[in-house]
Design goal:
alpha+beta, Alpha-Beta Plaits, two-stranded antiparallel sheet, 15% helix, binds iron/sulfur cluster
Amino acid sequence: MSSYIIEVSDECIGCGICVDLCPLNCLRMGEDNKPYLQYEECWYCGCCEIECPVSCLKMHFPFLIY
Ligand code: SF4
Ligand code: SF4
């Protein structure tokens, strides 16, 4: 499962680390055992992407930052 902001590839092992670490508690595990963004409160800290043990989660900024 993926969204515009959070994209998860098939390499996800369903460990739930990203869900546990999200400071805004806006990630949930889906029925496919992959995380998805339940709430749009994401503040783009990048924690979920950085801490994923298999680097399968990609966070996309919805705007450009220079
Ligand atoms: S980028 Fe930060 S706030 Fe957004 S889902 Fe990941 S851990 Fe949560
Ligand atoms: S930390 Fe990575 S491997 Fe673990 S559930 Fe999240 S996206 Fe999947």
